[in-house]
Amino acid sequence: MEELKGILWRQFGAVIDMLESSILLCPESFWDKKDFWYSAYHTIFWLDYYSSIEVDDFSPPKPFSLSEFDPKGILPERIYLKEELMEYLEYSRKKVFCLIEGLNEETSKERFITKKKNYSRIEMILYNMRHVQHHVGQLNILLRQNVDAAGKWVSQTDKKY
To answer: Could you tell me which residues come within 8 angstroms of residue 74 by beta carbon, excluding any fewer than 6 positions away?
Structure first.
């Protein structure tokens, strides 16, 4: 289990590092474009939620809301600042690390259950990682098309908590 936990964290942490790189690279002049700031927020919100053990009790940290759960796709009340999203990303990164560190024979079999999902804890970690990587690709395309830059590739994270 220790080897699996190491692999999961190094790879998931790398994806989070790549998201961080893309967000930090975005110039202020492009930040307020809905496609960028909102995609970054959406990615971090679901990163946080999908890393939750008690999904029915989920609540993001302030100033964020549960707007992502609105079936009509209502945007948050305002554009979140880059600094706010970087703090939320760090909060979520630690949450993922703790989730992975807490894996053992028992917790790895726990279920992430919602109306649309019923996954083992390990499968949910992989699903979550794929979701983040998907949006990192989108953010990098937006950056490349609009500011001729893109976030860096990270092979493995070296961060630990």
So the answer is: 67
Q: Give me the residues paired with residue 119 across strands.
A: 112
Q: Indicate yes or no: pTM above 0.90.
A: yes
By 3-state DSSP, what share of the chain in percent is helix, strand and coil, each rounded to 5? 65, 5, 35
Query: What contacts 98, CB < 8 A, 6 or more positions away?
Result: 161
Q: Which amino acid is at 67?
A: S
Q: Can you name the residues that pair with 120 across neighbouring β-strands?
A: 111
**Nearest-angstrom CA–CA distance, 5 and 112:** 18
Q: Where are the beta strands (DSSP E) in the chain?
A: 111-113, 118-120
- Assess whether the previous peptide bond of 63 is cis (omega < 30° from 0): yes
Write out pLDDT tens, residues 29-64.
999 987 899 999 999 999 999 999 999 999 999 999
| Ramachandran bin of 151, using left for φ above 0, alpha for ψ from -120 to 50, beta for the remaining angles | beta
Dist CA 53 CA 20 (whole Å): 24
Decide: 138 and 39 in contact? Cβ < 8 Å. yes
